[in-house]
Design a protein that fits this description.
This protein is of the alpha+beta class. It is 40% helix and 15% strand. Strands 1-2 form a two-stranded antiparallel ribbon.
Length: 97
Amino acid sequence: MTSTKPGSQIGGYRREVDYQKLGPALLISSSLVLAIRTARWEPMQSDGLANIDWEKEVEHSVRIAKIMLSHLTSRYPDLFQSKDVAWYVATDEEVPK
């Protein structure tokens, strides 16, 4: 339970994955997925216009990487950097009657 009232007592800490530091991991994993999926594509000449197939492939690669990271963080949280998050002891005022 979290509390923002002054005078709240911290009951302890729990370890949670630090999701703010997963940005580079998402970028690297989505780039790897994209590279693997497009390795056999013919080289394209870019004339400044967006290629719809390429944009769809990038979106799909990011989606796959998000699913993969979500799976790993939920089942194997020890693989990632963690942080201590405080949990608070409920006072008499905060307990429902």
